[in-house]
Design a protein that fits this description.
Layout: H1 2-7, H2 10-22, E1 30-31, H3 32-35, H4 40-52, E2 56-57, E3 69-72, H5 74-86
Antiparallel strand pairs: 1-3, 2-3
Length: about 90
């Protein structure tokens, strides 16, 4: 968990929070490029980071090997819960 947390940047956490709030159907996902008004290349790079850390899942296959449509994975939910419990209140 510490290794995963150490690799997260603010944009990763914002994406995870937006995925949690959107709560897409199980077979769908959120297109990160559209949700954050990002270029497709940047969205794919951010999604690749989150996929590598197992914080998000893809709703299907990509023949290019790159994804920018994802949904929150169970570990992503766990990480968000941990961040919320550890954040200072006030």
């Amino acid at each position: 968990m510490i290794n995963v947390l150490a690799q997260l940047e603010v944009i990763h956490i914002r994406i995870l929070m937006a995925l949690e709030e959107s709560n897409p159907p199980a077979e769908a996902g959120v297109r990160v490029a559209d949700a954050f008004d990002l270029s497709p290349g940047l969205a794919e790079a951010l999604c690749a980071d989150l996929l590598r850390l197992a914080l998000v899942e893809t709703p299907g296959m990509s023949f290019r090997g790159l994804h920018n449509t994802v949904r929150l994975a169970p570990l992503g939910r766990e990480i968000l819960g941990l961040l919320r419990r550890e954040s200072p209140r006030g």
